Automatic annotation (TrEMBL), chains A, B:
GO molecular function per UniProt: ATP binding; histidine-tRNA ligase activity
Catalytic activity of the protein: tRNA(His) + L-histidine + ATP = L-histidyl-tRNA(His) + AMP + diphosphate + H(+)
UniProt-listed SUPFAM superfamilies: Class II aaRS ABD-related, Class II aaRS and biotin synthetases
Family: Belongs to the class-II aminoacyl-tRNA synthetase family.
Family annotation (Gene3D superfamilies): Anticodon-binding domain (3.40.50.800), Bira Bifunctional Protein, Domain 2 (3.30.930.10)
Name of protein: Histidine--tRNA ligase
Lineage: Bacteria, Pseudomonadati, Verrucomicrobiota, Verrucomicrobiia, Verrucomicrobiales
GO cellular component, one term: cytoplasm
Length: 428, 428
């Protein structure tokens, strides 16, 4: 346990090397999957003009922003999310890339919220977005990517569920029930809170529209067949990919944010013991709004945070086993141990030569007993220790996992390393 | 060129995919080298209590901080550098790691400065530090790492120079010239500004110590032999590593910051056309100060920014050629092209199977002409296109670089891909 006297600010985290390796395990998995799907990485600035977020949210800003005046009196915000920057940058660069754009990003976001399980003031988000393609193929590609980001971490069918919904269905429902267009947003907000509000509270809100909660319950529990053509198309595409078992239609999902325009989804652990793991959907009008009409691209995207999923890994034995195996300490391929201080220059030259070949090499930086050096080698998970002593240029090559030892010359050392059948694991 | 209407804030940058790939090229190189040296990655929070930076700088804070009051009235700062967090985190976690700690970090830093070439308001720093080892071997290991971070990017001897200095030499000089200890800092500040101040300005400052500028010039230009035993030791270690040609003793380097305690260094392009590329040195008392005495670790470290080095790559033909070759667009291994719309489910199933094997696969998300699909395949640098048509499960496998084509079954497809002699380049 870290010394409690040296804490970061509340809601912020320190990543000492072990924690950083666990973080990188997530990042590496998401990057691998995104690249397999043909997505390319982008990154925006950590701080943007607050105006950009005002444009995105249509004038109503959330209250949890890290929003400040900078030394030049600019109204700036440390980014709470990535989609506003994405829209701005996509508008700026759209002419340089063939559409559809398949872009991903992993970066820190900041929200001044009450820190609690799965909710932090600085957290990482993996964002993936497809811009410039309005067809269901793009929604399916994106949802498949989200599912594979989970599968890559060892989660299986049954561990989590993608709850798919379609705001178009609710817009049709609202129209059919005579809700005027300018009040549709208020109605969607009721549906959005449907699961969280107490029934009487929900009914009180519905009274304004002359609606009964039980009708909504019935509609959500038994949605009309083919109520969402888009959902049916996406389901067929996911089925062809072998991924239909990961999704279900769940019209109670609306996604609070005003800018979503069609298919939306959220990923939850099957036991619903945690907050949403990921969320996203179509936002066909946002890029146009962010660019004041200069760029008009239909879009679909999602964000997956690092905090909730880390809790889920702890809860899920096969995901945890996969991660723990990946985090075995192995920060060194070859440890160079010095048995004769006079040979330190030879050892250093050897270190450079091995590192130039891509091997991860460590060595004692000050005089140390041979036994202690070899202990450090084991601690770092080194595959080999090479002892440089007075017999140099003869060396002792110890295979620490096989517990074998041999006397070799320098050329033989390089040959032995190059011919190691597990070679791939010991260099980059 | 990006559309100028959609700029980030001044001094901040957008990384559209091409720019992000260039950024990642730097990050990947530094991470590779750090790992070869047995360094492990850590990360601190982007925002810290301002008090931490006050502790570090001994009460005098720089004026360019992004320093604010948060919603809970805390005095917070968006980090201007990484060493303060490192000291705090190392103090918190020191019992969990065997010393010496060899830690590296790559992260954004923020300074409210006038944006200009090589100087931004948000920039990346690669930081590497060795904590818990006071011997010269640690300084040499760290400087060798810095040199190899440059070599990995294609820079050669003669492209850049590590200017090594030793503050102990100046402390001895100050003592010898009767400067009282409490004024040594003022004296070091004069030496620090020696190259930038006009000679008369420098002399005016030296008057306070009854010193003549020409004596300083003579001392810097012809330092006494073995004036710095630490420098001699480090040079011998670098020589044994084959890296002595990259360094020179240059006592005009002092490093402004008060916390440096011994050997310091800066890396410059040989033509001195740019600002410093990197800087660092020993800070043996800082961790103790940051932890109010709880952790006392000698330390040495350096920071290397991404902005100046990017300019240097542009100036240096062999470094630029290496980078440009690494940035060839190749975001896809296999492009799946659809010749018969009825076969889309087959194509999607194939995409999943190939992606599950680690291949980077792309496909059209909505109906498109075969010719356009194949154009997109080429644009993404795909090695193969696989055409799925009415002959499915027979497929047409096109090798886009070799410009060959063959009809294959599904099993043959996987076999052909697995046996590709350039296989390593087409999967992860």
């Amino acid at each position: 346990m870290p010394d409690a006297r040296f804490q970061p600010l509340p809601g912020f985290r320190d990543f000492a090397p072990q924690e950083c390796a666990a973080r990188n395990y997530l990042f590496d998995a998401w990057k691998r999957v995104a690249r397999r799907y043909g997505f390319v990485e982008w990154e925006g600035p950590t701080i943007e003009s607050t105006e950009l977020y005002l444009k995105k949210s249509g004038g109503e800003l959330p209250t949890q922003l890290f929003r400040f005046k900078d030394q030049g009196e600019r109204d700036i915000t440390v980014r709470p999310e990535l989609t506003a920057s994405l829209g701005r940058i996509a508008a700026a660069y759209q002419r340089e890339y063939t559409k559809p754009l398949k872009w991903f990003e992993i970066g820190s976001c900041f929200r001044y919220e009450k820190p609690q399980k799965g909710r932090l003031r600085e957290f990482y988000q993996f964002n993936a977005d497809i811009l410039g393609e309005s067809e269901a193929g793009a929604d399916a590609e994106l949802i498949a990517l989200a599912i594979d980001c989970m599968r890559e971490l060892g989660f299986r069918e049954g561990d989590f569920i993608v709850r798919l919904s379609d705001r178009e269905v609710w817009l049709g429902y609202a129209a059919k029930h005579g809700i005027p267009e300018d009040r549709t947003g208020d109605f969607l907000a009721i549906v959005d809170k449907f699961e969280r509000d107490r029934p009487e509270e929900c009914q009180r809100k519905l009274d304004a529209f002359g609606m009964r909660r039980e009708d909504l319950v019935a509609f959500i529990e038994n949605p009309p067949a083919d109520c969402s053509p888009r959902y049916s198309e996406v389901l067929a595409e996911l089925d062809a990919r072998g991924l239909a078992g990961y999704v279900k239609l769940d019209l109670s999902v609306v996604r609070g944010l005003a800018y979503y325009t069609g298919l939306v989804f959220e990923i939850f652990d099957s036991g619903r013991s945690l907050r949403a793991i990921a969320g996203g959907g179509r936002y066909n009008t946002l890029v146009k709004a962010l660019s004041d009409g200069a760029a008009d691209m239909p879009a679909t995207g999602f964000a997956l945070g690092d905090a909730v999923i880390s809790h889920l890994i702890e809860q899920c034995p096969h995901a945890k086993a996969l991660r723990d195996a990946a985090l075995q300490p192995n920060t060194c391929d070859i440890y160079l141990a010095l048995a004769d201080p006079a040979q330190r220059p030879a050892l250093l030259g050897l270190a450079s030569a091995l590192r130039d070949q891509g091997y991860r090499v460590d060595l004692a930086l000050s005089p140390a007993k041979l036994g202690n050096q070899l202990k450090r080698a084991e601690k770092q998970g080194a595959r080999y220790a090479v002892v440089v002593g007075e017999e140099y240029p003869q060396l002792e090559l110890k295979n620490l996992s096989a517990r074998t030892s041999a006397t070799v010359g320098i050329d033989e050392l390089f040959a032995a390393l190059a011919n190691d059948p597990e070679e791939e694991t010991i260099s980059e």
